[in-house]
């Protein structure tokens, strides 16, 4: 087997079609993970020891086991679970699977943001008689979220690179298209190289952008904590 | 006799195994200015944090306007632990200025002052703005209202913190060593504002302070706290000029020589 | 319907492959990370440039894509035969995570305060001695917690090897599931539990290192 530029050129438009699906899926999974991340934070703040112990370990379990197996669980096993089981299409299964997996990461990001807010901010808002909801809305979250933006941005890039896992349960995006092409013509390397290039083309500039953001927010944050 | 606005009744407070307050009894009359002095670690901060509900007593009762702070009665008339609603209904009468300002860094000076009146008291925004501007003018910061806290000096920050607390029109105001985080040359401007407040008003104040001259000037009563008990209290002149207990004498001597 | 122990036994046939891939990848990626991380902070512009290129290529693409690419390109394109697909998997995982981990090596070395370098110069240590005795010991302590986190990532990544035909947990699980559809929940839950059991020591290591890193590091 030799490298063929013809095949390479020919597969570019084919893979490009899959790019949009990959991107769409990335964004859907990411939004799910961002929102679901709050769930873990909320659970870990319930002031009942066994409850937040339980949820901490559930999150740890999800975080430290392979997302691929979790995808298979949701796609192949969930439908046959008695009573609560439902059959999901590959798209929804991927959003749930990857979304839940990464929510255990976003929750850690939120937690670090919340913990970085000075204790005095809570006390001052108590002294001003704010309700719990008002403290979160006006004082804590506006300070906790901005410094986490670069970290959350990093997770968007990581998510982008994890999304090809969805091809294993039949989501037809870039990787799946490449493998299909390979199976048909027994030419794998060229389409796979095209896939890799698309990933590189998108994630490298994004990473540069994030590290810019990181510097900006770190500076702002330093200034804030230095002066309270 | 006038009813006290704040009453501490046999208050004990422990952190873990360490008993920090060992039976505090204290009545504060409306409009009374009380200075709280004592060595570091004696429990001064804890006393005022208890009233601000930032700490809960281990035992004893605190009353504000005759209402029990940490307990309330349920429908059957039985005592149960206070819920957030109960705490908030009492907390409205109390304000606090912190040693480290605790301004909200993501809001301008004006927004810092306007926040609580608009969202807690639900007052009209334009009215609140007007009052806030007047208040900031009173503390000498009318030209800084659009700046953020980290653009101010320590003394200016502390004056904003005072304006912010005053916006809620508390009946009792708590000051926890509000000048001790400031550079020496900035202390005066902050004390000046407190002095004006004290002279002007019917607001009760509890001031934790190491500024003895200042205490002498504005306080109606001075309390000397030592190792979690009120060791001596009375007229400022009596306490600060002619102390009785050896410990207080010792404290005052050490204090004046250390400076 | 088979019992949980029966299914476990079937799945555990894959333990060997999972463990081999895991251990080899952990070792190889660590070596790659150290070499690449040190190259990134070296004075040799060519070396730094080349390493940066390697790191960006592997971080910029996706591990699963790399895995497929290696498994087709190595034998087909370069006529390299590693003898077993295990080596293909180890190589892909290690090159990928080696690239990520080299960044923590680099970051840790750069974060040792300049005062430490200056003090070592003042004591007349050579550049090598400086690295060996002063900078690296401090840097290692700082990077260990993140290193632990990456080991967990590597463990999770080993689940991909069934996609190129290696016979790990997931491989046996998928085969069993395809003939016993209703037992899929048991199968995948068991696989997840096995992975979690393997992850526990790594989680423990990471937490311990977080504590170690807080001590004994110069600040400022
Ligand atoms: N949250 C806390 N946890 C444990 N110990 C505390 C806490 N707050 C205060 N203390 C201890 O209580 C004692 C009194 O503290 P504090 O009221 O701050 O004293 P002061 O303000 O007079 O210096 C000190 O020994 C302090 O270490
Ligand atoms: Mg104090």
Automatic annotation (TrEMBL), chain A:
Gene name linked to the record: ehuD
Protein name: Ectoine/hydroxyectoine ABC transporter permease subunit EhuD
Keywords (A to Z) from UniProt: Amino-acid transport, Cell membrane, Membrane, Transmembrane, Transmembrane helix, Transport
Signal sequence range: none
Phylogenetic placement of the source organism: Bacteria, Bacillati, Bacillota, Bacilli, Bacillales
Major place of residence: membrane
Membrane topology reported for the UniProt record: Multi-pass membrane protein
Domain ABC transmembrane type-1: 19-210
Source taxon at top rank: Bacteria
TrEMBL record, chain B:
Similarity comment: Belongs to the ABC transporter superfamily.
Organism the protein comes from: Sporosarcina quadrami
UniProt cross-references to SUPFAM superfamilies, sorted A to Z: P-loop containing nucleoside triphosphate hydrolases
Subcellular location: Cell membrane
Descriptive protein name: Ectoine/hydroxyectoine ABC transporter ATP-binding protein EhuA
UniProt KW Transport keyword: yes
Keyword Membrane (UniProt): yes
SMART domains listed in its UniProt record: AAA
Keywords for this protein: Amino-acid transport, ATP-binding, Cell membrane, Membrane, Nucleotide-binding, Transport
Bilayer topology annotation: Peripheral membrane protein
GO molecular function: ATP binding
CDD domains for the chain: ABC_HisP_GlnQ
From TrEMBL, chain C:
InterPro entries (alphabetical): AA_ABC_transptr_permease_3TM, ArtM/GltK/GlnP/TcyL/YhdX-like, MetI-like, MetI-like_sf
Coiled-coil annotated spans: none
Membrane-protein topology: Multi-pass membrane protein
Primary location: membrane
Record-stated family: Belongs to the binding-protein-dependent transport system permease family.
PANTHER family linked: L-CYSTINE TRANSPORT SYSTEM PERMEASE PROTEIN TCYL, MEMBRANE COMPONENT OF AMINO ACID ABC TRANSPORTER
Name assigned to this protein: Amino acid ABC transporter permease
């Amino acid at each position: 087997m030799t490298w063929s530029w013809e095949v390479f050129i020919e597969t570019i438009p084919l893979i490009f079609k899959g790019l949009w699906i990959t991107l769409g899926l990335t964004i859907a999974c990411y939004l799910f993970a961002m929102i679901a991340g709050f769930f873990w934070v909320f659970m870990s703040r319930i002031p009942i020891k066994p409850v937040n112990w339980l949820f901490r370990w559930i999150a740890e379990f999800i975080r430290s086991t392979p997302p691929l197996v979790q995808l298979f669980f949701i796609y192949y096993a969930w439908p046959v679970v008695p009573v609560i089981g439902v059959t999901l299409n590959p798209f929804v299964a991927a959003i749930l699977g990857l979304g839940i997996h990464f929510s255990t990461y976003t929750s850690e990001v939120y937690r670090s943001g919340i913990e970085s807010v000075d204790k005095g901010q809570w006390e001052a808002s108590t002294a001003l008689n704010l309700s719990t909801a008002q403290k979160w809305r006006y004082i804590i979250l506006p300070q906790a979220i901005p410094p986490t933006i670069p970290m959350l941005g990093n997770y968007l890039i990581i998510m982008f690179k994890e999304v090809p896992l969805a091809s294993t349960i039949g989501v037809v995006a870039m990787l799946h298209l490449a493998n299909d092409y390979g199976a048909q013509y027994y030419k794998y390397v060229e389409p796979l190289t095209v896939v890799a290039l698309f990933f590189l083309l998108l994630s490298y500039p994004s990473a540069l952008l994030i590290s810019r953001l990181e510097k900006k927010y770190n500076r702002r944050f330093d200034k804030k904590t230095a002066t309270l | 006799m006038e009813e006290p606005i704040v009453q501490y009744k046999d208050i004990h407070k422990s952190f873990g195994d360490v008993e920090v307050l060992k039976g505090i009894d204290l009545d504060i009359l409306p409009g009374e200015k009380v200075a709280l002095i004592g060595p570091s670690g004696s429990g001064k901060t804890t006393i005022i944090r208890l009233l601000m509900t930032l700490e809960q007593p281990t035992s004893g009762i605190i009353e504000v306007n005759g209402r029990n702070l940490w307990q309330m009665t349920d429908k059957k008339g039985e005592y149960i632990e206070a819920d957030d609603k109960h705490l908030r209904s009492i907390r409205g009468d109390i304000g606090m200025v912190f040693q480290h300002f605790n301004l909200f860094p993501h809001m301008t000076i004006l927004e810092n002052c306007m926040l609580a009146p608009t969202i807690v008291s639900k007052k009209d925004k334009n009215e609140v703005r007007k009052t806030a501007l007047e208040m900031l003018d009173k503390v000498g910061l009318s030209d800084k209202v659009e700046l953020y806290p980290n653009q101010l000096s320590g003394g200016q920050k502390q004056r904003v913190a005072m304006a912010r607390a005053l916006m809620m029109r508390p009946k009792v105001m708590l000051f926890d060593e509000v000048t001790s985080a400031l550079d020496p040359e900035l202390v005066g401007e902050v004390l000046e504002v407190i002095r004006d407040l004290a002279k002007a008003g019917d607001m009760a104040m509890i001031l934790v302070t190491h500024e003895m001259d200042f205490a002498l000037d504005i306080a109606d009563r001075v309390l000397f706290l030592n190792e979690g008990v009120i060791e001596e209290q009375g007229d400022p002149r009596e306490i600060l000029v002619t102390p009785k207990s050896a410990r207080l004498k010792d404290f005052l001597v050490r204090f004046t020589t250390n400076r | 319907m088979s019992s949980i122990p029966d299914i476990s036994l079937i799945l555990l046939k894959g333990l060997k492959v999972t463990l081999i891939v895991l251990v080899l990848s952990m070792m190889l990626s660590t070596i790659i990370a150290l070499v690449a991380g040190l190259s990134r902070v070296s004075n040799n512009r060519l070396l730094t440039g080349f390493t940066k290129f390697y790191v960006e290529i592997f971080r910029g693409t996706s591990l699963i894509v790399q895995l497929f690419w290696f498994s087709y390109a190595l034998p087909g394109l370069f006529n390299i035969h590693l003898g077993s697909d295990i080596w293909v998997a180890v190589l892909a995982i290690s090159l990928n995570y080696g690239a990520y981990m080299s960044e923590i090596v680099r970051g840790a070395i750069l974060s040792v305060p300049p005062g430490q370098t200056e003090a070592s110069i003042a004591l007349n240590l050579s550049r090598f001695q400086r690295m060996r005795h002063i900078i690296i010991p401090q840097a290692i302590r700082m990077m260990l917690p993140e290193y632990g986190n990456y080991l967990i990532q590597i463990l999770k990544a080993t689940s991909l090897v069934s996609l190129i035909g290696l016979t790990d947990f997931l491989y046996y699980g998928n085969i069993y599931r395809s003939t016993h559809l209703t037992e899929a929940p048991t199968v995948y839950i068991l696989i997840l539990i096995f992975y979690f059991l393997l992850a526990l020591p790594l989680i423990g290591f990471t937490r311990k290192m977080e504590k170690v890193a807080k001590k004994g590091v110069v600040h400022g």
